[in-house]
Amino acid sequence: MHSLAPPHGGEDNGAVFQGVREKDENLRIVLALGRELENRGIPVYYTRTTDVFQTPFEKAQIANQTGADFFLSIHRNSGVNPGEYSGVESLVYEKSGPALELAENINGALGEIGFKEIGVFAEPEIAVLRRTEMPAVLAEIGFINSEEDNRILEENFDEIVKSLADAVEGTISEEQIQAQAVRTYRVQVGTFREKNRASQLVERVKAEGFPVILDADQGIYRIQVGSYQELENAVTMERLLRRRGFSTLITD
Ligand SMILES: [Zn+2]
């Protein structure tokens, strides 16, 4: 399930450039994307399908009531001066998990079509990102005051909608695969930002004869022992490690 939130609306036009109002652009993209997702069998909820005003908080509340798995807010960006900036960027509450994956998939898909990829940024102050209970992404589909971006959007509109749907569908199926994967437990004996310190601990654990794993993710090194499909076995290993003086934590 997916929740789509066309931003702005009603008295809130969003950005305006040469008579084109962002609120209309957002709605146009969202309705097309929603149709595409529904055609693929992915149920969609909308925070609005007409030109009505909602606060960002209301949009988040509506989405939370649907219990959707993802929340996607589609915007057009705007620079202070026309033509100053161009490209797509996506905002997330924090750069981790399914929201980051969806954001990266969206940027990548639109980058392939020809938009400049600006990046994914954490913006925890944005209400629709902070107040939504599911992974949420705010995607800026190019700048409304960039003629280059508007040209890309108009010339490739159907392809862009399909690419956005691909990004959503790809993220959903990846999440399902991960959820179905066998759950395993590991005993963590330390986390470090410095690789040298992580390697030193790995050597210490190895010297004691434990099956140690060094897991590196986004600049954080986790030193773990395992994996175990049964929690009981992880607990037994944790006891052994503690006896050897390691401080431990069971992760899954
Ligand atoms: Zn906007």
Structure in words:
It is a single chain. The protein contains 8 helices and 12 strands. By secondary structure, the chain is an alpha/beta fold. It folds into 2 domains: 178 residues, Aminopeptidase, CATH 3.40.630.40; 67 residues, 2-Layer Sandwich (Alpha-Beta Plaits), CATH 3.30.70. It has a 6-stranded mixed beta sheet, sandwiched between helices. Strand 6, helix 3 and strand 7 form a beta-alpha-beta unit. Helix 1 crosses helix 6 and helix 3 runs antiparallel to helix 6. The model has no long low-confidence stretch (mean pLDDT 93). The chain binds zinc ion. Zinc ion binds next to loops.
Shape: elongated
Span between termini = 26 Å
User: How many H/I helical runs?
Assistant: 8
In CATH, the homologous superfamily of the largest domain goes by the name Zn-dependent exopeptidases
Measured on Cα atoms, how large is the radius of gyration? Answer: 22 Å
Query: How much helical structure, as a percent, in the residues?
Result: 40-55%
